[in-house]
Each structure stands twice: as C-alpha cells, then as structure tokens.
C-alpha cells in the first residue's frame, strides 16, 4: 500500500486482533467443557450472589457465550482487514469493541481493563490520522492530502510582445510532435475485453465453495446416522454418564437432543447445498449472484453458531466471505460482469 498506515490504526488492529484471538480460545474452551463439573460450579458460584436461579439461567447463558464467541471471531477477522484499509471492517470492529466495552463495564471491577481497551480501540480507529488514512485508501482523499501546493513566488519570464513562451512554437507553425489522426475504422472491430476477476472475489468463491462442500458432506453423513440409527444414539446418551449429565444440565432428554440434532444438521445440509448453488451463481457474475452468496453466508454463520463448537470454522469462513464480497473491487466487478 502506497500510503503509510498510521500508528493509531496499527495499534487498534493489533489490540483488536489479539483480544479477539484470546477471547475465541477462552470461549471455545468454555463451550467445549460446558458440561464439566468445574464449569458448572464456577457458573453457579457466580450466579448465586446475583440472586439468579442457576438452573433457569444456565441454558440462556450458553446462548450468550455462543454469541460472544461469534463476536470474538468477527473481531479477529475485522482487525485483519481493517489494517488493510477496509472501511466496513473498521466499522464492524468499532461496533464490537464499543459493545464489548459497555458489556465488560457492567460486570464490575474485573471488567474495567477490558472496557478501557475496547474504548481505546474505538478512539484509535476514529482519530484524525486514522480518518485521513481510510479516506485516502478508499478513494475519498481529503483536500488537505490531495491538493498540490501552489508556487506563487516563481519568477516571471520576460519576453517581447507577441513572442510565445519558451518551448512553444510560434503562432502558425505546427508542433514538432503531433498525435496521429484518429481513424475510426482501426478501432471499429476491436472487441471489448471483460475485466478479470479480482482477487477478493476469487478468495470468496474458493472459501464458500470448499466450506459448502464439506458442510454438505459432513452434515449429510451425520443426518443419515441420526435418522437410520436413532434408537442406538438415544441408548448411547442414556448409557454414558458424562453425556447424561450434560443433558441434565441443559434440561433436555436424550430423545429431544437427537431430535434437535436432526433438525440442526438437516438445516445445515440445506444451507450447504444452497451455498454450492450460490457459489456457482456468483462465479458466473452478476449482481444477483453477489446477493445470493452474501445471504447464504449470513445463513451459514447463523446455522454454524447453533452447532458450536463444531461450526467454528464455518463461522470464520462465512465472515471472511462477507468481508471479501463487501470490498469495492468485488462490488464493481459484479456490477460490470
């Protein structure tokens, strides 16, 4: 990038990226060990001083942790692309950091430092050097950065009246170098070459295609097992003490869990097939293909969030696809295709 990135943008993206990575690992480990005795006891000890019923709050709290994990992954991706001048990623990182600061501040003294860090990220991203740099990178050059200084004190050349300036031929004499005459016949048969597919579009198509393919294969196999061996899966939940304790903590039975899993992986299979269709449609070009792939990516992130921690990679891939599709060169290519 020709324009040097300000230090404020670099620091904000480093803070946001590191915070997102650390939060992702911490929240992922919490969800993976949600049914363990240590996690349950820690959550109950934290909820009892607040006067809340742990049995009623724990299922809702698990959904909150899932949402926080999605935000942490999004903050990591947004930090990477904001460092490259992506305007939408800058806005997304600012929103997540601001909401995170308010949330951490509401937790008490333990959340003061993370709240300060989130506020600092928002301030650095919208400071004066950051605003000017994002304006230059996205083609909205400010007047203070885009104008050439004028030289008002340059000496004026003295020449007699009627004599042209130095380097300019006298009046009536043709210039030494003249452009060739334009011949329409030479350009009439030249075909218009379509613009090549930009890199963000290719990356979005590659990630969406691979993610949709593996999602369709994986969800299809799991769905087939849940439907064909439903009784065996229910018996496995009942016989395994760890699985049974996880179901008891979640407040669902083995039959209900298998039913939920069947609907979840069935929905994942449908969205994955739609993802393959949308990827092929977007590869052919056209604004409707852009919209189709964008909508399917949002649906993929939502379905994958319901299947955490298994759907972690699909959430990350969907966010990357959405960011790549929102880049200006990608939008311009779909409009011209």
3D architecture notes:
The protein is mostly helical and 337 residues long. The chain has two domains: 7-137; 199-336. It has helices at residues 7-32, 37-47, 54-82, 87-106, 112-125, 128-137, 143-146, 184-188, 199-228, 230-239, 241-250, 254-283, 287-306, 312-325, 328-336. The longest helix is centred in the middle third of the chain and has 30 residues, at 199-228. The chain is flat. The two termini are 27 Å apart.
In short:
The protein has 337 residues and is an all-alpha fold.
Helix count from the secondary structure assignment:
15
Largest sheet features: none
Secondary structure: helix percent: over 70%
Q: What is the distance, rounded to the nearest whole angstrom, between the alpha carbons of the first and last residues?
A: 27 Å
Shape annotation: flat
SSE string: HHHHHHHHHHHHHHH
Overall pLDDT = 79
Uncertain stretches:
145-155, 184-194
| Beta content | under 5%
Q: How many domains, as an integer? A: 2
Query: Strand pairing plus helix content: what structural class?
Result: mainly alpha
Number of strands: 0
Radius of gyration: 29 Å
